[in-house]
Amino acid sequence: MKGKKRRVITIHSSRGGTGKTVIATNLAAIYANKGLNVVLLDLDFRAPSLVAVFSKTIKGPIKHWLGDFLDGRCKAKQALIDVSEGYNFRGKLLVGFANPSIDAIRNLVEKSRAWEVTAVKKLFSLRSTLFNEMGIDCCIFDTSPGVQYTSVNAVVSSDISVIVTTYDSLDMKGVENMLVELYDAFAKKTVVLVNKVFPETRMWSNREQKQLISRMEKVLRHPVIGVIPCFCDVLQAKRTSLLAVEKPNHPFVRNLEEVAEKLEVGVETNLEEKVVGK
Amino acid sequence: MATKAKSATLGAEKLLSQLVDGLNQINKKLDSIIQLNKNILRIQKELLKKCGIQGPSVTERKISPDVLSLLSLPAALRKTVMVLYKLEKATAEGLAKETGRLRAVESAAANQLVRLGYLKKKREGREVYFYIESPMEIEK
User: Fold this and answer.
1) pLDDT interval class at B139 (50, 70, 90)
2) Most C-beta atoms within 10 A of its C-beta, which of A9, A70, A100, A162?
3) Is the pLDDT of residue A110 over 60?
4) Which domains does chain B have, with CATH numbers?
5) Is A170 exposed, middle or buried (0-12, 13-18, 19+ CB in 10 A)?
6) Closest Cα to residue A276, out of A212, A224, A223, A227?
7) B82 touches chain A (CB under 8 A)
8) Residue scoring higher pLDDT (A213 or B31)
9) C-beta atoms of B137 and A72 within 8 A
């Protein structure tokens, strides 16, 4: 996004288990590998997982969590930890971690509606800190599934949302409802990424894949930015491994690189025109 | 043909301008009714106090404009609140710059949100600012 519009991307889903966090972390790694300065925030306060993903690269105890920033107990910069050194990225990767302790989860889940108003304003103010003061090119929000305050706050304060779904009918129905009742209501730019699609699609021709995308776009009435087949080794990989770093030639990473490219460039051109009802 | 199109545009502009004037007048009348109501309540409270009667407590309506509450608002009002998440405070002119709508439309929307209890407004010199009252100080 150097020389291009800096943007905040929300990775969201209607239900759990769609591969949201794997997508968010690897997308951040792909951008950082390209030389961009990236911030990845764990906004999944109910089930924080980024601490586990980056556990090997975190040096010493974490002094400030993302919740502390939203609570006004620390500045944004203090809640961001630079993990790029551990991966030899060309750019920077800073991560804002959510505290995985039960006390912290309970504390954040019990917050009032008034607190949520402050939280969404904080997320908006974070943009200027990241883009104008810290030279960040891209910020990625990894959110909780479904309609919860932190997720909706993230959607409202971001430039574009990527809804990750599987091809499961319940997932697709959930996405369909969420698109109409949430995303369209806030008039936010939204694309859908279908993950863990049946492995046979790997053997499909480009024409067949395009037909599948076209069918889904007709149902969802929003652009489908990519279809990633299910890979057993991705499902079995340790959560601490970043495929984009360890296996950059893996087809999962190749697929995600295409998605990253579209988010970087394509959404501003052809995809945007395809958004129905905008 | 060109003359016809030009006169149609002028007609539409005139109509729009009349509509905006009408909205402004309604706004002013509503504001004066609200002020009148406040004065009546204040006088009533003073009279009750003088007579030694404890009247019902009158509290200002205040609603927290969180993201999920916004879903119950009409789209036009929702857009105004979303701009104020970003701007902290703004005049009708400032809101209009962000939304791309007319200043009068923004003024009407923001004033309606004040009446509903979602926003607050304050005067600073000649400008009237709309803002979201937050229980926590926003740290930049």
Assistant:
1) very low
2) A70
3) yes
4) 1-59 (no CATH), 60-140 (1.10.10.10)
5) exposed
6) A223
7) yes
8) A213
9) yes
Residue B122 has φ and ψ, to the nearest 5°, of: -145, 150
Q: Which of B67, B78, B138 sits opposite A149 (nearest CB)?
A: B67
The pLDDT tens digits of the residues spanning B59-78 come to 556 778 999 999 999 999 99
Q: Which of B64, B67, B138 sits opposite A152 (nearest CB)?
A: B67
Q: What is the pTM of this model?
A: 0.81
In this predicted structure, the answer to whether residue A204 has a pLDDT above a threshold of 80 is no
B75, A185: Cβ pair inside 8 Å? Answer: yes
Residue type at position A155? V
A149 vs B66, B137, B139: nearest CB: B66
Which DSSP string corresponds to B85-137? HHHSEE-HHHHHHHH-S-HHHHHHHHHHHHHHTS-EEEEETTEEEEE---SSP
Q: Which residue of A has its CA nearest to B86?
A: A124
SS3 B66: coil
Give dist(CA A239, CA A242) in Å, integer: 8
Q: How far is B122 from chain A (nearest CA, A)?
A: 19
For the stretch A225-253, pLDDT in tens is 988 988 877 777 777 778 899 899 999 99
So what's the ipTM on this one? 0.81
